[in-house]
Specification:
Blueprint (H helix, E strand, L loop, with lengths): L2 H17 L14 H7 L8 H12 L2 H4 L7 E3 L5 E4 L2 H45 L23
Antiparallel strand pairs: 1-2
Helix pairs in contact: 1-3
Length: 155
Amino acid sequence: MTQEWLAKRANAMNWLMNTFPESIGAKLPLKVGVFEEIRAFEAMDKPSLVWIRRALWFHTSRASYLKKIIIGANRVELMGAIASDVLEEEAKNAKSRLAEIRKKQNEVKRKPQIKKQLAADQQATKAEALKKEKINPVTRRKILTLKKKPDLVVG
């Protein structure tokens, strides 16, 4: 995603939130098929439908939105009127998507710790290998040892 791409999506998201503050701006569960309502909505400053769809997907994929999709919660139309209730299957789907988001967040948090541990393990392994080969860990050169010459017997 480029900066331009992100800017266009942000522009469409801002338009949605400012145009429909009672539903999208309030981050309430939206009725199924709300995109068709947006498509039919006439406005001079309306962004491209491609960017509106992307912004809408971004909005409905956020954890803060998914947390509100619980059994029996009211779904709203664009102007804020109650349209229907969240069904059990929809709530289960939202819960599983939330679990995936949390799993990814935990993986991202653990990556630096795992990298540090791997680096420490590799460093220890290298130090052990250097000891076995009798290599100075600082200079990375073989440690020279003087061998004692055998005593010569003169006779």
